[in-house]
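Re-running Transcriptional regulatory protein LiaR to confirm reproducibility after the cluster update. Everything else is unchanged from the original entry.
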Amino acid sequence: MNDTPIRVLLVDDQPLLRMGFRLILEGEEDLAVVGEAGDGAEAVRLAAQLAPDVVLMDIRMPGMDGIEATARLCAADGPRVILLTTFDLDEYVFSGLRAGASAFLLKDAAPAELVQALRVVNAGDAVVAPRVTRRLLENHLLAAPPARPDPDPRLAELTARELEVLEAVAEGLSNGEIAGRFVVSEATVKTHVGRVLAKLGLRDRVQAVVYAYESGLVVPGG
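Result of re-run:
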């Protein structure tokens, strides 16, 4: 077991909210708050200095907002980002996921949910239920359908089974459900998912769902 605590950077323009998050996280032995920022620009600067594992990022802030900050952090292969929002179908959440965020949480989430989210995202898994991500994407894309993209050449690198697994992930199926569909073990599914993420250069399952829609592999409402 790794005894090194998960390093967390808190980003919110409301000091009282940051204080509340800090109090929750400091009660956990495996979590350490390494810094706080009041806007996106400060978050990017502190992330470079403090090397956090996960950034808890408010979406709406003055100056550089959480979307732009997330894009900059992810473009630099920085820490994983969990977005904080007030509404689970907020259009800004969609933009944040496209920018590379690994998850989003409602600001009124229970403390245990917040703590678990940090642990799961740090481990490289998805916090947001894939079905919620799918619903968010479908609502957004059905309202403003994008032009049909040209096939991504990276898809040609996937085996037939890996394509099937990617489509199943985009449907919102869990590893257990995918294993049941293809009559394989969950360990085998995890291996396939890991290979899909590696070949496509994706950070996690949430990004795989976003990719499946934006590449045209999955059609909204289909």
